[in-house]
Write a structure and sequence with these properties.
Elements: H1 2-28, H2 44-61, E1 69-75, E2 78-85, E3 87-89, E4 94-95, E5 102-103, H3 109-121, H4 131-134, H5 146-151, H6 159-162, H7 177-187, H8 203-217, H9 221-230, E6 239-240, E7 274-276, H10 278-290, H11 296-302, E8 314-316, E9 321-324, E10 330-335, E11 344-348, E12 353-359, H12 365-373
């Protein structure tokens, strides 16, 4: 009897110790992950047909035009076509693979936008909360709401331009989010229009949204995005670039293959500076379809155009560009441009098709190829709303086309030397 009691006591103690160990593990690392459905079943014959069609299309529309990067097209999560062309670094000829993370430029904005909507869903932020609720220092910009920041209807001037004033900012010093904020507080650059009266794309909106995330969550934006999005979604090659990553991040190049140097706006995030891969973006796309990260009703509002001042195919939701066709079709997408990076990410909601193109050698043909690819899957007429593709996201004008000479002169950078801020 005594032996039996000792045995039971040891068993209970062992079980208790095991539970303590498990709880400790859960305290130190999050085990929660967003599950996504199995990819749609597509027959080998159908998949071969899609692959041949897409190979022919991209060979003509993109690959023959100096493309350097990766392309992925999927339907209901099933990859129909995937190809990687060129090099991670044109100087060293390092191969570009499916794990090469590339700068998303303004294609980072949907990530920031959805992170804000997660805070809205959790009751920590209201879409119609005033900007001054979080930042009373900006009382001289009254009437701006979180919704207006998300939809580019705030009227706030674009920091890409006002921080370029050399009399007020040393162009040899990196600008941070905090620097931009202090500039708004102290210099008070004039707003572009009355808040809510119209649409105007401004990167300032998304830098402020990143700062709002930090204020509400108590975490730096890069940490919040990693903990709340990237890790639970298993986006293993996705991260927020900070200046400490300068020596390891994938570089970009101009159309002639010249290395594109960093400039003074490299240090801001929220509007840009997320690096990712086509496969990670596909997983991100699939998580959004589940309704587990953002509930469907709130996601639908993000995919609803917020600007109706004039009739146009083009609109902007809450963190997403939209193409709304007369036949009821809708494209939910976001392109971007930062130096030589020209990403395109599009979601054909009706067909559940995802088109992803990431490149690190400047190539405006990426946008055209993405838009033209819509028609391969549905009744899209090829019109794109006449938008100027992401021209407002870059701090310097786009590079000129390659010179028609044997030896093209190297592009001169406006900033020859950039110093980290002390």
């Amino acid at each position: 009897m005594k032996r039996t009691c000792y045995f039971l006591l040891a068993l209970i103690l062992g079980s208790s110790c095991g539970n303590v160990k498990s709880e400790k593990k859960n305290d130190n690392e999050s085990s929660f992950v967003y599950t996504i459905p199995e990819p749609a079943a597509i027959s080998d014959k159908e998949k071969a047909r899609y692959e041949a069609m897409l190979e022919s299309f991209f060979d003509s529309a993109l690959f023959r035009r100096g493309f350097n990067g990766g392309v992925l097209v999927a339907k209901e999560g099933q990859i129909l076509y995937e190809k990687y062309v060129g090099y991670r670094d044109l100087r060293t000829k390092d191969p570009l693979t499916d794990t090469t993370s590339m700068h998303l430029a303004s294609t980072s904005k949907p990530f920031t936008g959805m992170a804000v909507l997660k805070l809205v869903q959790d009751g920590k932020v209201g879409l119609d909360d005033s900007l001054t609720k979080f930042f009373p220092e900006l009382a001289h910009y009254p009437g701006v709401t979180v919704r207006m920041l998300l939809s580019h209807r705030s009227g706030l001037p674009n920091y890409v331009y006002f921080m370029a004033d050399k009399t007020k900012w040393d162009q040899n010093v990196y600008v941070t989010n905090e620097d931009m904020f202090k500039f708004l507080v102290n210099e008070k650059p004039a707003r572009s229009f009355t808040p809510g009266s119209r649409f105007s794309y401004s990167n300032t909106n998304y830098v402020l949204l990143a700062m709002l995330i930090e204020k509400v969550s108590g975490m730096p934006y890069p940490e919040f995005m990693k903990k709340e999005l990237f890790e639970p979604m298993q986006l293993n090659h996705t991260y927020v670039f900070t200046l400490k990553d300068s020596s390891t991040a994938t570089p970009s190049f101009d159309p002639n293959g010249g290395f594109w140097k960093n400039d003074f706006l490299e240090g801001t995030y929220g509007d840009k500076n997320i690096y990712s891969t086509p496969r990670d973006l596909l997983r991100w796309d699939q998580v959004l379809y589940t309704g587990k990260f953002i509930r469907q009703s709130l996601l639908d509002s993000a995919f609803t155009g917020q600007s109706r001042e004039r009739n146009s195919l083009h609109n902007y939701g809450l963190g997403w560009r939209l193409l709304e066709y007369p036949n009821g079709k809708k494209i939910v997408y976001h392109f971007g441009r930062w130096h030589g990076f020209t990403p395109a990410f599009a979601r054909l909601i009706d067909e559940k098709v995802t088109i992803i193109i990431l490149g690190n050698k400047f190539n405006r043909g990426i946008y055209q190829a993405a838009h033209k690819a819509y028609g391969l899957f549905g009744a899209y007429d090829g019109r794109t709303g006449g938008e100027d593709q992401e021209s407002s996201t870059e701090s310097t004008p786009p590079p000129p086309p390659p010179a028609k000479t044997k030896e093209s002169p190297k592009k001169k950078e406006p900033v020859k030397k950039v110093l980290k801020r002390k």
